[in-house]
Specification:
By secondary structure, this protein is an alpha/beta fold. Helix content is 31%, strand content 18%. It has 27 helices and 31 strands. Helix 8 links the parallel strand 13 and strand 14. The chain is globular and about 70 Å long. The N terminus is likely disordered.
């Protein structure tokens, strides 16, 4: 007989080694596919993770990182009790009361002397995969009245949101490629066979890509490197940071040859003629040296995009980290619209959520772009956050609003933000640094307090940020798989308890903050349940029998498919611009095209260009302590083409030194024909010196030391770090 578990219906107890075991259904929260997992639990401890064969989307697939979460969960190096720095610099275990009382007292003293705007918060990528963490930290910072919120988004995706704000008036209105119905996919700066997709949730994305080819379509992968995805389909080599030149030359051909979809342009857009004028300056013959794509190939691709019955352009991290990332994201949608493929089947579609997500984000104050500007650099906020690249200067620059205390949750900015050395020196000047994390990271080594967070297996969850990103409309809920280890707590619980000690009313919305001040503290679960039940698919508290609620989702442990495809023809009513049209030539983009055209030549003495890459068994900086992911020949390597290796005296497997105008690192060279000439690829997230022994032993180097630490070098429209196409030279070490 089946037993019932908090995660849903599961098989009854299985006796093994004289102890009861159970199977618990959950889903992975490492990256955006959110694959289904089945956990084996014995006496409250995680024994094993396996793919969930009954998950309707992932259907028995999970990558090595998801399976390796067993090792993260049970890692002996994990922080499971609050730690406080002693005067001698070492950490000592303290109680939660000691930690939170001490932190609250120091924060209140700073508020009294310098104001709430002297306190900051940085959160990393894993924080986005918790439905409660971002809401509560934003509520906490709003209660303080502080603008100092920073995230890993400025090293990843923020310019995509900036582009959507300019195009549609709403930063969270991000189209996804309709892979299941398209005939031609042009993919730039993405390697989903390894990364499994980003800003799209498609657990079996390789199957979706292969299905395009099987039905007679094409997948074209534009990348400076012959990635795993490029090898599987068609590779179009481009120069590092050549994407905006390529996209503008595609638009040039579309307009010059009369290939644009005039009806779609007339129906959907404003500024078409201005865009035509901008593109007129970028003929493929003139851009080939900058895009890296020969003019005949550009012209053929433009004609193919126009001729395809259904086509779409999709770009991700590789397109975001150059000097023109917002312009590139903007042009991706512009090409899709001009070819008649925006908001239509097989093109770029706008996902629908089972709750009123657009309204939720607007009411919470999170769906902003340029509402406020940073004290350093005058950069616009993106979703309420400022560029992490200004944090060091925000700490060290005197004046009103100087940051004097910083929380870091689920992040490791010393390894992910450009200028790690200057940021590290700045962190030493803080009056208070608190890290909420699973490990003593490189950043955590400098902290005054380290507070133990739960893993995703130790908390209930709901995929709130990703509801509109599912290729197949889908919703799910999970309960915790196992109890928290030691004294670990969820981030929202830590924030809530700290706020209570500081006498702050915290919440994502004004009424919630008022309720907190009155002593009523609704949980994230109740908040989401209310939003679900009153949403377009909700049960309206029993008035709609088949409607959604947390209770119904708990009875569906593998999730619920809400439809085969997202509806199209919805864009006009979701655009926030008053004229209801896509803006194809806002002043900010016109200025960026001018900046691109006037780009100075690269500096002398640095003949190569550095790019990043994703590795199947890495996820940013936090999974290098799982032994199963570090087995075999794992080594941090600089990939370089055979021709460049010969020219610069580099031997395969030998140590080499990579130098930029800003720094130098030493690591092993890997000579491979996957690299285009003139390009070096180095993965990020290595070079550990924290409290994790396996990661420390892996060696490697922090590649972001090669990036500019100057806050003035950030991309102007979104404050994105310049981590791709960095000028470098290479030599034997």
């Amino acid at each position: 007989m089946a037993g019932r578990h908090a995660g849903g219906l599961v098989p009854g107890p299985v006796l093994g080694h004289n102890r009861a075991m159970s199977k618990v259904t959950t889903y992975c929260r490492i990256c955006e596919p959110l694959c289904g997992l089945e956990a084996t639990v014995r006496d409250g401890e995680l024994v094993q993770l396996r793919p969930d064969r009954d998950h309707p989307l992932s259907r028995g697939f999970a990558c090595p990182k998801g399976i390796a979460m067993t090792e993260v969960q049970n890692d002996p190096d994990r922080v499971v009790h609050p730690l406080r720095r002693r005067p001698d610099g070492e950490f000592e275990r303290v109680t939660w009361d000691e930690a939170l009382d001490g932190i609250a007292a120091r924060l209140n003293a700073l508020r009294k002397e310098h104001g709430g705007n002297s306190i900051g918060w940085y959160f990393g990528n894993p924080g986005t995969f918790s439905y409660s963490h971002p809401l509560w930290l934003n509520g906490f910072m709003a209660a303080l009245g502080s603008p100092h919120i920073y995230s890993a988004g400025s090293q990843d995706v923020n310019n995509r949101f900036a582009a959507s704000a300019l195009l549609y008036g709403a930063p969270v209105l991000v189209p996804i490629p309709d892979l299941k119905r398209t005939d031609l996919l042009l993919m730039l700066g993405a390697n989903p066979i390894v990364s499994h997709g980003s800003l799209i949730s498609a657990p079996r994305i390789r199957d979706d890509l292969s299905a395009i080819v099987r039905r007679g379509g094409r997948v074209v992968v534009a990348d400076p490197r012959r990635t795993e995805t490029a090898r599987a389909y068609e590779h179009l080599p481009v120069a590092p940071d050549g994407d905006p030149w390529l996209l503008l030359s595609l638009l040039h051909v579309l307009f010059a040859e009369g290939l644009e979809d005039a009806a779609a342009c007339e129906r959907q857009a404003a500024g078409v003629q201005e865009l035509r004028g901008l593109a007129a300056r970028f003929a493929p013959e003139d851009t080939a040296a900058r895009s890296g794509v020969p003019a005949p190939a550009v012209r053929a691709l433009a004609r193919d995009l126009a001729a395809a019955e259904r086509a779409v352009v999709y770009g991700r991290t590789g397109t975001c980290l150059g000097r023109y990332g917002t312009l590139t994201a903007f042009l991706i949608d512009a090409v899709t619209l001009v070819t008649g493929n925006l908001d239509r089947p097989g093109g770029a579609v706008f996902g629908a959520a089972p709750l009123r997500l657009d309204e939720l984000l607007r009411l919470s104050g999170l769906a902003t772009y340029g509402k406020t500007r940073s004290r350093i650099g005058n950069y616009p906020d993106v979703l309420g956050t400022f560029p992490a690249g200004v944090m060091a200067d925000e700490i060290t620059t005197p004046g009103e609003g100087r940051m004097r205390a910083l929380f870091v949750s689920a992040g490791n900015p010393l390894l992910s933000v450009p200028g790690g050395d200057s940021l590290g020196a700045a962190l030493d000047e803080l009056d208070l640094l608190v890290c909420v994390d699973l490990y003593v990271t490189e950043t955590g080594r400098k902290a005054d307090y380290i507070l133990p967070a739960t893993t995703f297996l130790e908390r209930e969850d709901f995929p709130l940020p990703f509801l509109q990103n599912h290729l197949t409309p889908f919703v799910t809920w999970t309960e915790a798989v196992v109890p928290p280890r030691g004294e670990a707590r969820q981030e929202w619980e830590i924030i809530d308890d700290l706020a209570r000690r500081m006498r702050l009313g915290v919440g994502a919305f004004g009424p919630q903050r008022l309720a907190h001040r009155l002593g009523v503290r609704p949980s994230p679960r109740r908040l989401v349940d209310a939003l679900l039940r009153t949403g377009p698919s909700g049960d309206w508290f029993g008035l709609r029998r088949r409607g959604l609620s947390v209770r119904r989702l708990r009875r569906a442990p593998h999730g619920i498919v809400l439809g085969e495809h997202h509806p199209t023809g919805t864009l006009r009513r979701r655009i926030v611009h008053k004229d209801g049209r896509v803006h194809l030539a806002p002043p900010e983009i016109v200025a960026e095209v001018g900046r691109l055209a006037a780009a100075p030549p690269p500096p002398d003495g640095f003949p190569l260009r550095l790019i990043g890459l994703r590795e199947l068994r890495s996820h940013n900086s936090w999974m290098h302590n799982a032994p199963s992911l570090m087995r075999g020949d794992r080594v941090h390597a600089a990939r370089i083409s055979p021709k460049d290796a010969a020219e610069h005296g580099i031997a395969d497997g030998a140590p080499c030194r990579v130098t930029s105008p800003h720094g130098s690192i030493e690591l092993v060279a890997k000579v491979t024909d996957e690299m285009t000439e003139g390009t070096v690829a180095v993965p990020h997230g290595w070079g550990h010196q924290g409290g994790w022994r396996t990661a420390n032993g892996a060696g490697g180097a922090n590649v972001n030391l090669l990036a500019s630490p100057d806050a003035g070098d950030l991309e102007p429209l979104a404050g994105m770090a310049h981590l791709n196409a960095v000028p470098v030279r290479i030599a034997p070490a």
